[in-house]
Amino acid sequence: MATDSSNADTTGLEIAVIGMAGRFPGARDLEAFWRNLRDGVESIRFLEDADLEPSALDTAAVRSDPNYVKAAAVLEDADLFDAGYFGVTPKEAEVMDPQQRVFLECAVEALEHAGYDTERFKGRIGVYAGARTDTYVFNLFSNPAALGGLDPFEIGLGNDLAFLTTRVAHRLNLRGPAYSVHTACSTALVALHLAGQALLADECRMAVAGGVAINVPQNVGYLYQYGGIVSPDGHCRAFDAKAAGTIFGSGIGLVVLKRLEDALADGDTIHAVIKGSAINNDGAVKASFTAPSVQGQATVIKDALAAAEVSADSIHYVEAHGTGTALGDPIEVRALTKAFGNKTKGRRSIPIGSVKTNVGHLDAAAGSASLLKAILAMKHQQLPPSLHFESPNPQIDFDSGPFYVNTALQPWPRGRTPRRAGVSSFGIGGTNAHVILEEAPATPASSASRPWELLVLSARSHTALDTATARLAQHLESHPELSLSDVAHTLQVGRKAHSHRRVLVARDVQDAVRVLRMAEPQRVLTATHETSQRPVSFLFSDAGVGTPLESLYRSEPAFRAEVDACAKRLRSPLGLDLSAAMYPEDGRRPSLPEPLGTMARFVEQYALARLWMTWGLVPESVLGEGIGAWVAAALSGALPLEKALTMALLGDPSNQRRGLTGSGLKSPEMPLLSAATGAFVTDAEAMRPETWMDAASNTSRLDDALRELVKEPTRVVLTMGTPGALVERARALAGTTGTRAIRTSVADSLPALASVLSTLGQLWLDGVEVDWDDVNEDRGLRRVPLPTYPFERQRYWVAPAARAEPTQAVSPQAPQGKLADVADWFHVPAWHRTAPIALDRKALQERRCWVLFVDGLGVGEALARRLEEAGQDVVRVRQGGAFMRDAAKRYALDARLRGDYATLWKDLADQDLSPSVVVHLWSLGSSGEEPSSPELFRKVQDTGYYSLLHLGQALAKGDTSRPVRIEIVTDRVQDVAGEGTALPEKATLLGPCKVIPQEQEHVSTRCLDVVAPAPGSPAVEKLAERLLAELSQRSRDAVVAWRGSLRYAQTHSPLRLEPVGEAPTPLREKGVYLITGGLGGVGLMLAEHLARTLHARIALLGRTALPAPSEWDGYLATHPEDDAVARRILRVRELEQAGAQVMVVHADVADAAQLEAAVAKVEARFGALNGVLHCAGVTQGPSLYNPLTDIGRSESETQFGPKVHGTYALEQVLSRRSADFVLLFSSNAAVLGGLGYLTYASSNLFMDAFAQARAGRSGTRWVSASWDPWPEETKHTNVRTSMDQYAMTPAEGAEAVRRLVTLGVDGQVVVATGDLAQRWRLWIQRETSQPVAGARAAGKPRRSKTPFVAPGSELEKQLAALWQEVLGVDSVGLNDNFFDLGGHSLLATRVAGRLRTQFDLDIPLAKLFEAATVASLAKLVADHQAALEEAASQAALDELANLSDEEIEAELARRSR
């Protein structure tokens, strides 16, 4: 064996570690990992009961066991994943083992850390890795309702460990071996060994190796058993006398490997060298299958030393397996001592340690953690401490061996040999691995830099690009020693090019940091790349380049070579060296006489074009004017360079024929446009000398040629000079339909090299393919570690269903029917004081996009500043007269126009800005100090109700896969403690607040009512600070109010209305009562009750006029009984027969003048008005049962008519009278929302708030009753819903009215026949996703009124399965009604969402209610699918009709790849 003294003593079998990535408990990256190791941090989390996550495996009994240890080694954000980066669908991501998701991201990070773009790398890349047993799958198996109908094969693809490496190979286009390894705890180092062998066998040229382990759930403990492998207290005490076990944790570590000689030749950064490695198995000669073996471990260590061809005494440190078990630690030390034998430096001379004392045992990733710890220790030349070692395990005799436990941070000096370490990893089952590491060879000095360098960055979104920019700036600031040339090179060749791109040109690292931090924003170019491999055409002018190119000549060998070649050809005819004349050594820019000036214009354009071509920009066509025509001809190959130079030199066309003597003319090798003909030069034209004699002087068809050049929108036109008349002409001819990219090679404002590099960057922004290797050819540049891709992760997680307990609870999802006692139906609004929401700084660490509809008080602006300081993306939207983008992330829109909101959302989507939180403050302070009035109502709707409606519509049409929170901040909506400041006019905004999230499952809302601060006052900043805290996290409280420092959440308190003794405000015998909407179902029902019980005098007011009573007999004689008017006449006569005096009054209740006249008629006939039952409302037509996407101003105003303006009119008319009461007939839609009820809920919310604002006043009592459904016969639709179970009978409804009117209540009263608290939790707090304790998705028996008919077709079976999943029943028949099976409105929303994703069917809610059986729904879906297929077929036929045979063949070939 060799005893080396330097890295020069190599065997040719060394493997270089050129890239690394890792995430460990307490460390999101390797920098944090090293800090924790260096500082002796134990990254074990000790849990409280509240911290414990639900588990599909743990039982309550296990967790209550006194030996249950509440400790975990947790990998942060293991539930997050950037699915879009890898082309993974949200559902696929959700059911994919998080180990595979994290492995995908870390593989990208490791390769980027190595400086490689897998798409650009020409060799084969292998993947060798393994994962621990997948425990996430238990979540999936326990919760089939969350699987979205995926079949077992699809679930297996995301969870089978066999696909760990092949998925990475597929997603990253890696074509080497993809090898999944499973040897338990030694998996990662075995994978490393196999990868090294593959590299030496030339099976691949680069390899990714390592392991991953994520234990699901993470925040759980474990049950300690004496003598077992796990620790009794959550600490791992490797080699210590108190060692009693380990603690398992989660983490990932990957390295990128190459053969050392290849890495050195390729200019890679080498972090460490693997001198040798070995693997083996213990076999049967040991105590048990799980026991370790001295002989097996000692042998594998000896084998590794032999493979490395180094002696044991050259090893300076051993990173041990070190599990902290009483049996394993002594065996490991004995094996080490046996392997090292007498070839060491003395007793207690070699430090050992175990990373498991820091982060726990990471199972399949344990070897990766050990390896990376050793590499980092080498790089930093320090040995970090091994934790929790106080006195040795009595079974370990450290005194007789060379090893000791390193318990403190100490320097790691270099000795007579390079720093070397051994790393062990031993698996349960006996597969052992050992690796010999050596420090990296000295880094070669970087090559000379260009005076300027081009930095390129890209990402999949605008926000990710900003993050990448900030990370690079921070990295360069932290590493000023870096060569900017190496940085630029790594960014160019070592990163995948994404659609959002940014470039800048900088002089040095310090300059780059300044520009990256936007100190000079004009030097940063940013664009969204739309098409790839855009073609380029070159344009040459007679004016030449137009700016000095001396710096380009000095710095770019390719440019200098072309200039010198032309100068050499011209030396004889000119009698001097043109290059020396153009670029004198003293740096002057001489004024060249003719013909030198002409030749300089030719040569510089030609050399510049050739430079672009060496950088991979080969033009698809060329065009020149004047002398530029000969440059173009020479470049195209039609005119030999020497002849083109001669033509330019001769100048006079009469002399040019001499220059064209002899052969040499030929057909162009690339399309060449002629300014003389305006067309491409034909082969015949190219062979005629006259073509070239005329080329420079004849520009009669230049415009035609330019039109041809710029007509393709995707083409990029690159001119060889500064901007000038020719460029402007080209841009004018391109107009709006031609190319949008006409670029100039150089600009006057920058030095030539900086200008050319800036143009190169601009071309890359445009989507032109650049050969970065050629750009940096022969510069000897290195790939250096730089910040990796800033993944934009979202949570994808399937939680386990609750475990079955001995007693099963009743489902909380479906309250069943009515309460028996009518007295229990009544509730009033109440406010429950809660603790203030604390600022969640961790939540704000994840970058999100916030859209703020900023108010005029300054609160929104103050909040925006705080969010930006927290690193959030903030888009500001102000009120304006039309949509406009004021600046980056600043907009104005017209609150009245629905289209402006849609335009805003599209513009954000075009920038890859996906809002996570929308804070709507336009209603804050919108009312000022104005009192309640119809005028105020009209004023505040645009910035309140309509603005939220339009916002919801924009969200419904946008990306519904991404969750969005809408936070509405307003004032004067709620009265919490009788302040009397609430305005019913603003209450309508609560309708969208409640209904939008019910109809759009991806949206959640919260309404915060605050006290508006004075503009510019300290209260503005204080309010913004509180909002930051409140909005930093979600809350179950949907309606919140702040008063002072107190926070309240809305709830409802029971109000038992039970008649006892004499009623305080009885109804009057033969009293006079006005019923608005009196000819409707509820109005007539109440009239009948009043007639029979009080012989009341009743005025029925409605918009529908009846014939005069004297004409009724004639009308009935000539019309059938089912005629609507005839039915009403008959009902009025029935009332009269019951003892009532009835008067039918025709008036629009929303018109105060008509209402005044109607009441006057009532008083004229009956002499008084004792009470009003305001039942008027629009219950038919497009304003009701409509999804929010179909609602406009017309539908809204239709509902506002009787409910809002009718209420105003009643107040005006009754203000001069002394009625006992007004009972406003509101709806529980105002309390609970409801699908299709947005406008209806909002108008009823106004009535509730109107009555509440008048509660406690003297005079007429105003009561608003938010009713559950009235009897079936009053409904105006045949649609069945889950609300039917709460419908009252006529007698119950009449009794409830009597109690409301006679028992002295006022304000808003909710009349809920069923459990209101539970329905509030279900429909407002949206607790629909919580599984039934102990129940499984298909556990409930079918409950239907129809005989069971099995679904027949595949589509019917799919829909039935969907219903089973959503409803949680064990079977669904073809004709079963959704609502009979326990369905309700929110579950219907789920069905609608699933239909949208599974069948691409966006079904109106009313249709869904009508198609309430599998049979009828299947017909709807089938019709929709047939329509889609027909449209697709027609589109395909239309497309084919416009394609040539060649284009069809090319497209078929593309699709088959």
UniProtKB/TrEMBL annotation:
Residues 12-439 form the Ketosynthase family 3 (KS3) domain. Keywords: Fatty acid metabolism, Lipid metabolism, Multifunctional enzyme, Phosphopantetheine, Phosphoprotein, Transferase. InterPro entries: AB_hydrolase_fold, Ac_transferase_dom_sf, ACP-like_sf, Acyl_transferase_dom, Acyl_Trfase/lysoPLipase, C883_1060-like_KR_N, Ketoacyl_synth_AS, Ketoacyl_synth_C. One of its GO terms (biological process) is fatty acid biosynthetic process. One of its GO terms (molecular function) is fatty acid synthase activity. It comes from the Bacteria. Residues 1350-1425 form the Carrier domain. It holds the Pfam family Beta-ketacyl_N. Gene3D superfamilies: 3.30.70.3290, 3.40.47.10, alpha/beta hydrolase (3.40.50.1820), Malonyl-Coenzyme A Acyl Carrier Protein, domain 2 (3.40.366.10), NAD(P)-binding Rossmann-like Domain (3.40.50.720). PANTHER family: FATTY ACID SYNTHASE, SI:DKEY-61P9.11. This is Phosphopantetheine attachment site. It comes from Myxococcus fulvus.
